[in-house]
Write a structure and sequence with these properties.
By secondary structure, the chain is an alpha/beta fold. The chain has ten helices and eight strands.
């Protein structure tokens, strides 16, 4: 494990894999750098891969008050460790963070994203306006299990009966440990889960080559949001990963990343 100091003094933990052009992996809600370890190991055959714990998770710090701009600065600090310029891949809400970082002008030559969870039409219910505030309230009251359950229900769309089953799975406790960061992801998403058409800004300001991907087996709202995003980014292309859902298999996703970032 290595650490880098972000602009506000927060220590951000990261791992480095392989040799080659720099590639940073940005995880989504609840994910720590451990979740990307296998992908990093596979991609390290062609790249120097960086995985990191987003602030408030794993071995990284969490300086208050939170702001999306601080997370962009965290990613910029990792880019600095990578030599000042790095390609980036983001998954889910981590994709939206990566997109916002690119729009903010970070030195990212190429960007790939998988299923930013935009809700841009009536293909699924929107997230309520008080979503972030309710997450904050639950974690402030120490109701971390309830915060995770609320997130899974309201943002991910998982029915209550399946949430109860998830509480017995190995992934539940790690999610509870980072429950306070779920509101961070909500702030990163902004108003993009409202069911309204995706606005052009800030995405239209992203000038770099961008690959927008979604799984063929994912819900229609994921397809629609990805297509809307790609339509706003001037130099974007979109691809369908057939048979994949929101957690794509590495042997399907990684070749797409290798082709895009080396092409």
């Amino acid at each position: 494990m290595n650490t880098v100091t972000s602009r506000d003094g927060t220590k951000i933990a990261f791992d480095r894999w392989g040799e080659g052009p720099a590639l940073i992996l940005v995880g989504g809600a609840t994910a720590t750098r451990a979740a990307s370890a296998q992908s990093a190991e596979d991609l390290a055959k062609q790249f120097t891969v960086y995985t990191y714990d987003r602030r408030g998770r794993g071995d990284s710090g969490d300086t208050a008050p939170y702001a999306v701009e601080r997370e962009i600065e965290d990613l910029d600090a990792i880019i600095g460790e990578a030599g000042g310029s790095a390609n980036v891949f983001g998954h889910s809400s981590g994709a939206v963070l990566a997109l916002r970082a690119a729009a903010a002008g970070l030195d990212i030559p190429k960007l790939a994203v998988y299923e930013p969870p935009f809700i841009t039409d009536d293909s699924r219910a929107p997230v309520l306006d008080d979503f972030v505030e309710h997450l904050d309230e639950l974690t402030a009251e120490g109701r971390r299990d309830d915060a995770v359950a609320y997130f899974m229900r309201a943002a991910v769309g998982i029915p209550d009966e399946f949430i109860e089953q998830m509480k017995d799975s190995p992934m539940w406790e790690p999610s509870v440990e980072v429950a306070h960061t779920l509101a961070y992801d909500g702030r990163i998403m902004g108003d993009t889960m409202s069911g309204k058409p995706l606005s052009a800004e800030p995405w239209a300001s992203i000038a770099i080559p961008t690959l927008v991907m979604y799984g063929g087996a994912s819900e229609p709202f994921m397809h629609n949001g990805a297509k809307a995003l790609a339509g706003h980014i001037p130099n974007a292309q979109h691809r369908t990963l057939e048979g994949q859902d929101h957690g794509p298999a590495g042997d399907v996703l990684n070749p797409m990343l290798e082709e895009f970032f080396t092409g």
